[in-house]
Amino acid sequence: MIELLPEPWLRGPIAGVNPLIAPILCSFQQAREDLAKYTEGLTAEQIWARPHGFGAVGFHIRHIAGSTGRLLTYVQGQQLSDAQMAELRAEHEPGATREELLAGLNATFQRAEDVVRALNPAALAEPREIGRKRLPATVIGLLTHIAEHTQRHVGQAISAAKLARAGELMAKKTLTSDVAKQIAAAAVKEAARNQWNLSIAIVDDGGHVIYLERMDQASAGSAEVAPKKARSALLFQRPTKAFEDVLAGGRTAILALPGAVPLEGGIPLIAHGKIIGAIGASGATSQQDGVAAQAGVDLLASLLGSK
Fold first, then answer.
1. Strand, helix or coil at 280?
2. What is the chain's pLDDT, residue by residue, as a tens digit (307 residues)?
3. How far apart are CA 165 and CA 112, in angstroms?
4. Which residues is 209 bridged to in the sheet?
5. Residue 61: how many CA atoms within 13 Å on its side-chain side?
6. 3-state DSSP call for residue 200?
7. Cα 10 vs. chain centroid, distance in angstroms?
8. Which is the CATH superfamily of the domain at 8-172?
9. CA distance 292 to 271
């Protein structure tokens, strides 16, 4: 079974770090993990896409790094340089790859962590001045703002990443391997949350398997059944639960239908009224398989903005 780590702030005290300072370090680690997860597989075009006019993924990652550096300048009692202001104005400019952006972000976080770890807790209440207007703040106020500002833009970057992925799906109305992995991941997450050991299969509109994941401890047979459930849902354009219900009602003739699987857990995947594929889940009870498969369907709906 997949072991899911708790969020950084739930992983216990950070050795040698004052509890009042630790939250900003947790925020940095959360940002690293979330951005790496939700941007995985994005193309350069998707990184700098601006769906519906919103900020690009690349902008948000770059802005997190830039703003962290600028705010740390204030923490150190200094004012921003001309070079820092020029970097601020250039944050929207496309070009950097996902790997370059994440590497730059990590380097900034490492420098910031060095500064934060060296802070004397007695200095947290010291006053600081922000910007040309010399607005009043404190060291701990700045640290708090860095942490919440980072998380705010991480959330926006995640949304931008989902919209960028969905943009291709909405334009082509075909199921991409990238979206298939996201759908399967949502089903696996639901299964792991309930301690079910499942196999999850995603098929395209031709019934071809484009993604299959067998969770740890899932039976070998589940990896055979999951694709069959998905193909059944696609072929007959309805959830396999419909066949299970018919069979439970005594209509055994349903077993004669070629390709029909009378077990819950297969559901068509629909985008803008068109069936683009299907998901199949197997390994637990049929009802539990159906719950996991529905989590994948719900993820697709959220990508399309319909849920």
1. strand
2. 345 689 999 999 999 999 999 999 999 999 999 999 989 888 888 899 997 788 999 999 999 999 999 999 999 999 999 999 999 999 999 989 999 999 999 999 999 999 999 999 999 999 999 998 999 999 999 999 999 999 999 999 999 998 887 776 666 567 888 889 989 999 999 999 999 999 999 999 999 999 999 999 999 999 999 999 999 999 999 999 999 999 999 998 888 899 999 999 999 999 888 899 999 999 999 999 999 999 999 998 887 765 5
3. 31
4. 203
5. 30
6. strand
7. 19
8. dinb family like domain (1.20.120.450)
9. 19
140, two tokens: 């701990």
Query: What's the CATH fold of domain 177-303?
Result: Beta-Lactamase (3.30.450)
As a whole number of angstroms, the distance between CA 224 and CA 164 comes to: 33
Please provide residue 195's backbone torsions phi and psi, each rounded to the nearest 5 degrees.
60, 40
Write the CB contacts of 185 (distance below 8 Å, at least 6 apart in sequence).
299
Q: What is the pTM of this model?
A: 0.66
The burial class, CB within 10 Å (0-12 / 13-18 / 19+), for 305 is: exposed
What type of residue is 92? H
Q: What three-state secondary structure class fits 190? A: helix
Contact in structure between 128 and 74 (CB atoms under 8 Å): yes
The ranges assigned to domains in the chain are: 8-172, 177-303
Q: Token pair for residue 275?
A: 């069936």
Tokens of 256: 């004669």
Whose tokens are 């299969």? That residue is: 201
